[in-house]
Amino acid sequence: MARFDGSVALISGGARGMGAEHVRGLCAEGGSVVFGDILDEEGRALDEELGKAACYVHLDVTNEDDWEDAVAMAEEQYGPITLLVNNAGIVEYGAIGEMTPDEFRRVIDINLTGTYLGMHYALPSLRRAGGGAIINISSTAGLMGYATIAAYGASKWGVRGMTKAAALELGPDNIRVMSIHPGPIRTPMTDGMPDEMTHSQPIKRFGEADEVTKLLLFMAADATYSTGSEWVIDGGAVLGPVMDIPSE
Ligand code: NAP
Protein backbone atom coordinates (compact mmCIF):
# COMPACT_ATOMS: atom_id res chain seq x y z
CA MET A 1 0.00 0.00 0.00
CA ALA A 2 1.32 3.47 -0.89
CA ARG A 3 1.85 6.00 1.91
CA PHE A 4 -0.97 8.33 0.77
CA ASP A 5 -3.54 5.77 -0.43
CA GLY A 6 -6.96 7.10 0.57
CA SER A 7 -5.64 10.62 1.26
CA VAL A 8 -7.33 13.64 -0.29
CA ALA A 9 -5.21 16.79 -0.47
CA LEU A 10 -6.09 20.38 -1.34
CA ILE A 11 -3.09 22.55 -2.25
CA SER A 12 -3.07 26.25 -3.11
CA GLY A 13 -0.52 27.78 -5.49
CA GLY A 14 0.01 24.32 -6.98
CA ALA A 15 0.55 25.14 -10.65
CA ARG A 16 4.28 25.74 -10.39
CA GLY A 17 7.24 25.96 -8.01
CA MET A 18 7.11 24.12 -4.71
CA GLY A 19 3.33 23.69 -4.87
CA ALA A 20 3.57 21.74 -8.15
CA GLU A 21 6.28 19.52 -6.65
CA HIS A 22 4.02 18.79 -3.65
CA VAL A 23 1.19 17.84 -6.03
CA ARG A 24 3.49 15.46 -7.93
CA GLY A 25 4.93 13.96 -4.74
CA LEU A 26 1.54 13.24 -3.20
CA CYS A 27 0.22 11.66 -6.42
CA ALA A 28 3.36 9.51 -6.75
CA GLU A 29 2.67 8.10 -3.29
CA GLY A 30 -0.99 7.22 -3.92
CA GLY A 31 -2.74 10.45 -2.89
CA SER A 32 -5.57 12.23 -4.70
CA VAL A 33 -5.00 15.96 -5.08
CA VAL A 34 -7.10 18.99 -5.95
CA PHE A 35 -4.76 21.88 -6.58
CA GLY A 36 -5.56 25.50 -7.25
CA ASP A 37 -3.76 28.53 -8.61
CA ILE A 38 -4.37 31.67 -10.61
CA LEU A 39 -2.05 30.40 -13.38
CA ASP A 40 -4.68 28.39 -15.26
CA GLU A 41 -2.52 27.38 -18.23
CA GLU A 42 0.24 25.88 -16.05
CA GLY A 43 -2.40 24.32 -13.77
CA ARG A 44 -4.22 22.61 -16.63
CA ALA A 45 -0.95 21.28 -18.07
CA LEU A 46 -0.05 19.67 -14.72
CA ASP A 47 -3.59 18.29 -14.40
CA GLU A 48 -3.15 16.59 -17.78
CA GLU A 49 0.30 15.25 -16.86
CA LEU A 50 -1.03 13.58 -13.69
CA GLY A 51 -4.27 12.05 -15.01
CA LYS A 52 -6.99 10.94 -12.60
CA ALA A 53 -4.93 11.41 -9.44
CA ALA A 54 -5.05 15.20 -9.64
CA CYS A 55 -7.57 17.90 -10.57
CA TYR A 56 -6.84 21.56 -11.24
CA VAL A 57 -9.26 24.27 -10.11
CA HIS A 58 -8.96 28.05 -10.50
CA LEU A 59 -8.34 29.23 -6.93
CA ASP A 60 -7.48 32.80 -6.06
CA VAL A 61 -6.79 32.40 -2.34
CA THR A 62 -8.24 35.85 -1.62
CA ASN A 63 -11.61 34.84 -3.09
CA GLU A 64 -14.06 33.11 -0.75
CA ASP A 65 -16.22 31.66 -3.56
CA ASP A 66 -13.11 30.07 -5.11
CA TRP A 67 -12.33 28.34 -1.80
CA GLU A 68 -15.89 27.03 -1.54
CA ASP A 69 -15.67 25.69 -5.11
CA ALA A 70 -12.27 24.06 -4.51
CA VAL A 71 -13.46 22.27 -1.36
CA ALA A 72 -16.64 21.15 -3.15
CA MET A 73 -14.59 19.83 -6.06
CA ALA A 74 -12.31 17.85 -3.74
CA GLU A 75 -15.32 16.26 -2.02
CA GLU A 76 -17.08 15.45 -5.32
CA GLN A 77 -14.02 14.01 -7.02
CA TYR A 78 -12.31 12.18 -4.17
CA GLY A 79 -14.12 12.63 -0.82
CA PRO A 80 -13.47 14.67 2.34
CA ILE A 81 -10.13 16.45 2.62
CA THR A 82 -7.45 14.87 4.82
CA LEU A 83 -4.60 17.28 4.00
CA LEU A 84 -4.70 21.03 3.35
CA VAL A 85 -1.52 22.76 2.16
CA ASN A 86 -1.68 26.56 2.20
CA ASN A 87 1.21 27.19 -0.19
CA ALA A 88 0.22 30.13 -2.44
CA GLY A 89 2.29 33.21 -1.78
CA ILE A 90 3.88 36.29 -3.30
CA VAL A 91 6.76 38.55 -2.37
CA GLU A 92 6.97 42.32 -2.96
CA TYR A 93 10.23 44.18 -2.46
CA GLY A 94 10.50 47.72 -1.12
CA ALA A 95 11.59 49.53 2.03
CA ILE A 96 8.80 50.59 4.38
CA GLY A 97 9.26 54.22 3.33
CA GLU A 98 8.78 53.33 -0.34
CA MET A 99 6.27 50.46 -0.37
CA THR A 100 2.72 51.72 -0.95
CA PRO A 101 -0.14 50.80 1.39
CA ASP A 102 -1.81 48.92 -1.48
CA GLU A 103 1.32 46.83 -2.11
CA PHE A 104 1.56 46.05 1.61
CA ARG A 105 -2.11 45.04 1.85
CA ARG A 106 -1.87 42.81 -1.25
CA VAL A 107 0.90 40.70 0.30
CA ILE A 108 -1.01 40.36 3.59
CA ASP A 109 -4.20 39.55 1.69
CA ILE A 110 -2.68 36.70 -0.30
CA ASN A 111 -0.15 35.23 2.14
CA LEU A 112 -1.91 35.68 5.47
CA THR A 113 -5.63 36.17 4.87
CA GLY A 114 -5.45 33.56 2.07
CA THR A 115 -4.09 31.03 4.59
CA TYR A 116 -6.84 31.87 7.08
CA LEU A 117 -9.49 31.47 4.35
CA GLY A 118 -8.03 28.09 3.34
CA MET A 119 -8.28 26.78 6.89
CA HIS A 120 -11.72 28.34 7.42
CA TYR A 121 -13.29 26.82 4.30
CA ALA A 122 -11.55 23.43 4.39
CA LEU A 123 -12.27 22.80 8.07
CA PRO A 124 -15.77 21.31 7.72
CA SER A 125 -14.38 18.86 5.15
CA LEU A 126 -11.40 17.91 7.35
CA ARG A 127 -13.84 17.32 10.21
CA ARG A 128 -16.03 15.15 7.94
CA ALA A 129 -12.91 13.11 7.16
CA GLY A 130 -12.48 12.49 10.89
CA GLY A 131 -9.26 14.51 11.03
CA GLY A 132 -6.06 15.04 9.11
CA ALA A 133 -3.36 17.67 8.77
CA ILE A 134 -2.98 21.30 7.74
CA ILE A 135 0.45 22.46 6.59
CA ASN A 136 0.95 26.22 6.23
CA ILE A 137 3.92 27.45 4.24
CA SER A 138 5.69 30.21 6.12
CA SER A 139 9.36 31.08 5.53
CA THR A 140 12.60 31.83 7.32
CA ALA A 141 11.15 35.35 6.97
CA GLY A 142 8.64 34.16 9.59
CA LEU A 143 11.49 33.41 12.00
CA MET A 144 13.85 36.36 11.55
CA GLY A 145 13.93 39.86 10.03
CA TYR A 146 14.88 40.74 6.45
CA ALA A 147 15.16 44.32 5.17
CA THR A 148 13.00 45.36 2.15
CA ILE A 149 10.37 42.64 2.60
CA ALA A 150 8.47 43.93 5.63
CA ALA A 151 5.04 42.95 4.28
CA TYR A 152 6.24 39.46 3.35
CA GLY A 153 7.87 39.05 6.77
CA ALA A 154 4.75 40.27 8.56
CA SER A 155 2.60 37.84 6.58
CA LYS A 156 4.92 34.88 7.29
CA TRP A 157 5.21 35.68 11.02
CA GLY A 158 1.41 35.87 10.97
CA VAL A 159 1.14 32.45 9.30
CA ARG A 160 3.43 31.02 11.98
CA GLY A 161 1.32 32.50 14.81
CA MET A 162 -1.99 31.50 13.27
CA THR A 163 -0.69 27.94 12.85
CA LYS A 164 -0.18 27.68 16.60
CA ALA A 165 -3.66 29.04 17.39
CA ALA A 166 -5.20 26.57 14.93
CA ALA A 167 -3.19 23.68 16.39
CA LEU A 168 -4.56 24.47 19.86
CA GLU A 169 -8.12 24.74 18.56
CA LEU A 170 -8.10 21.68 16.33
CA GLY A 171 -6.27 19.04 18.38
CA PRO A 172 -9.59 17.75 19.72
CA ASP A 173 -10.78 17.29 16.11
CA ASN A 174 -7.77 15.08 15.39
CA ILE A 175 -6.37 17.76 13.04
CA ARG A 176 -2.66 18.56 13.31
CA VAL A 177 -1.52 22.01 12.13
CA MET A 178 2.13 22.75 11.33
CA SER A 179 4.24 25.32 9.50
CA ILE A 180 7.16 24.88 7.11
CA HIS A 181 9.87 27.55 7.02
CA PRO A 182 11.89 27.26 3.80
CA GLY A 183 15.03 29.26 3.22
CA PRO A 184 16.15 30.03 -0.35
CA ILE A 185 14.62 27.41 -2.66
CA ARG A 186 15.03 27.37 -6.46
CA THR A 187 11.58 28.16 -7.91
CA PRO A 188 10.21 30.83 -10.24
CA MET A 189 9.88 33.08 -7.15
CA THR A 190 13.66 33.14 -6.68
CA ASP A 191 14.52 33.13 -10.38
CA GLY A 192 17.57 35.27 -11.07
CA MET A 193 18.72 35.41 -7.45
CA PRO A 194 22.48 34.77 -7.31
CA ASP A 195 23.93 31.61 -5.71
CA GLU A 196 26.23 33.89 -3.70
CA MET A 197 23.20 34.76 -1.56
CA THR A 198 23.59 31.38 0.11
CA HIS A 199 27.31 31.56 0.76
CA SER A 200 27.02 32.71 4.38
CA GLN A 201 24.94 29.61 5.17
CA PRO A 202 26.44 26.32 6.40
CA ILE A 203 24.95 24.61 3.30
CA LYS A 204 26.03 26.97 0.52
CA ARG A 205 23.41 26.42 -2.16
CA PHE A 206 19.74 26.97 -2.92
CA GLY A 207 17.44 24.16 -1.85
CA GLU A 208 15.42 22.25 -4.45
CA ALA A 209 11.61 22.09 -4.38
CA ASP A 210 11.62 18.29 -4.06
CA GLU A 211 13.64 18.55 -0.83
CA VAL A 212 10.76 20.54 0.66
CA THR A 213 8.25 18.03 -0.71
CA LYS A 214 10.03 15.16 1.05
CA LEU A 215 9.72 17.05 4.34
CA LEU A 216 6.06 17.86 3.70
CA LEU A 217 5.23 14.22 2.95
CA PHE A 218 6.96 13.14 6.18
CA MET A 219 5.04 15.74 8.21
CA ALA A 220 1.71 14.72 6.69
CA ALA A 221 2.13 10.95 6.90
CA ASP A 222 4.64 10.15 9.62
CA ALA A 223 4.90 13.01 12.14
CA THR A 224 1.75 11.82 13.90
CA TYR A 225 2.65 13.21 17.36
CA SER A 226 3.57 16.68 16.10
CA THR A 227 1.30 19.72 16.01
CA GLY A 228 1.83 23.47 16.26
CA SER A 229 5.42 22.77 15.24
CA GLU A 230 7.81 24.73 12.99
CA TRP A 231 9.81 22.75 10.44
CA VAL A 232 12.82 24.67 9.15
CA ILE A 233 14.42 23.70 5.82
CA ASP A 234 16.94 26.39 4.99
CA GLY A 235 20.49 25.08 4.65
CA GLY A 236 21.09 26.50 8.13
CA ALA A 237 20.30 30.12 7.12
CA VAL A 238 18.55 31.02 10.39
CA LEU A 239 21.59 29.94 12.42
CA GLY A 240 23.33 33.18 11.45
CA PRO A 241 26.32 33.68 9.16
CA VAL A 242 29.23 31.25 9.18
CA MET A 243 32.19 33.26 10.57
CA ASP A 244 35.84 32.56 11.17
CA ILE A 245 36.41 33.74 14.74
CA PRO A 246 40.09 34.44 15.41
CA SER A 247 41.35 32.22 18.25
CA GLU A 248 43.96 34.76 19.51
P1 NAP B 1 6.06 30.39 -6.92
O1 NAP B 1 6.82 29.54 -7.85
O2 NAP B 1 5.87 31.83 -7.23
O3 NAP B 1 4.65 29.68 -6.65
C1 NAP B 1 3.64 30.32 -5.95
C2 NAP B 1 2.35 30.14 -6.73
O4 NAP B 1 1.28 30.83 -6.03
C3 NAP B 1 2.45 30.78 -8.11
O5 NAP B 1 1.87 29.94 -9.09
C4 NAP B 1 1.67 32.07 -7.92
O6 NAP B 1 1.15 32.63 -9.11
C5 NAP B 1 0.56 31.56 -7.01
N1 NAP B 1 -0.25 32.65 -6.48
C6 NAP B 1 0.08 33.96 -6.33
N2 NAP B 1 -0.98 34.65 -5.90
C7 NAP B 1 -2.00 33.76 -5.76
C8 NAP B 1 -3.35 33.85 -5.37
N3 NAP B 1 -3.90 35.04 -5.03
N4 NAP B 1 -4.09 32.74 -5.33
C9 NAP B 1 -3.57 31.55 -5.69
N5 NAP B 1 -2.32 31.38 -6.11
C10 NAP B 1 -1.53 32.48 -6.14
O7 NAP B 1 6.72 30.38 -5.46
P2 NAP B 1 7.37 29.23 -4.56
O8 NAP B 1 8.76 29.62 -4.34
O9 NAP B 1 7.03 27.87 -5.05
O10 NAP B 1 6.61 29.55 -3.20
C11 NAP B 1 5.66 28.69 -2.60
C12 NAP B 1 5.48 29.15 -1.15
O11 NAP B 1 6.74 29.03 -0.46
C13 NAP B 1 5.07 30.62 -1.01
O12 NAP B 1 4.17 30.76 0.07
C14 NAP B 1 6.37 31.32 -0.68
O13 NAP B 1 6.18 32.51 0.04
C15 NAP B 1 7.05 30.24 0.16
N6 NAP B 1 8.51 30.38 0.25
C16 NAP B 1 9.29 30.36 -0.87
C17 NAP B 1 10.67 30.43 -0.73
C18 NAP B 1 11.61 30.35 -1.91
O14 NAP B 1 12.81 30.57 -1.71
N7 NAP B 1 11.18 30.03 -3.09
C19 NAP B 1 11.24 30.56 0.54
C20 NAP B 1 10.41 30.60 1.65
C21 NAP B 1 9.04 30.49 1.50
P3 NAP B 1 1.80 34.04 -9.70
O15 NAP B 1 3.00 33.64 -10.43
O16 NAP B 1 0.76 34.61 -10.56
O17 NAP B 1 2.14 34.92 -8.53
Return the string of H and E elements. EHEHEHEHEHEEEHE
SS class: alpha/beta
- Individual helix count: 6
In what order do the strands lie side by side in the largest sheet?
3-2-1-4-5-6-9
CATH superfamily: NAD(P)-binding Rossmann-like Domain
Can you describe this structure?
This protein is α/β, with parallel strands linked by helices and 248 residues long. The strands form two sheets. Strands 3-2-1-4-5-6-9 form a seven-stranded parallel β-sheet, sandwiched between helices. Helix 1 crosses helix 6, helix 3 (64-77) packs parallel to helix 4 (101-128) and helix 4 runs parallel beside helix 5 (150-170). The protein has one domain: NAD(P)-binding Rossmann-like Domain (Rossmann fold). The chain has helices at residues 17-28, 40-50, 64-77, 101-128, 150-170, 209-221; strands at residues 8-11, 32-37, 54-58, 83-86, 132-137, 175-182, 185-186, 207-208, 230-233. The structure holds NADP nicotinamide-adenine-dinucleotide phosphate. NADP nicotinamide-adenine-dinucleotide phosphate binds at residues 12-13, 15-19, 37-39, 59-62, 87-90, 110, 137, 139, 182, 184-185, 187-190.
